[in-house]
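Q: How would the structure tokens look for this protein?
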Amino acid sequence: MPISDELKNQIDAGFDFRGHVTITFEDGKTLDGYLYNRIYKTDKLSDGDYIEVYPKDSDASRRFPMESLRSIELSGKNFAESYDDFLKRTGGKT
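A: Here is the predicted structure in token form.
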């Protein structure tokens, strides 16, 4: 089943976000965690269309097929936000 553009956008936003996300699955269950990897299926990579997450209260990584996802919401604090603000104030000079 193809992944919708809306879900792809949510996955990419969750991957770029440096905080916790809330994943809602097709069965209605949810999981809070850090989305650190997403792999899309391609002609050269047939084992794709999955995300990898560190659940909020666990050190063990979990892998979920994208077809099992309903939505991804940016729900936690972006821990690098203060560094981004610093870079904006200093014009990118560290």
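The chain has a mean pLDDT of 88.

The chain is about 25% helix and 35% strand.

Upvote if useful.
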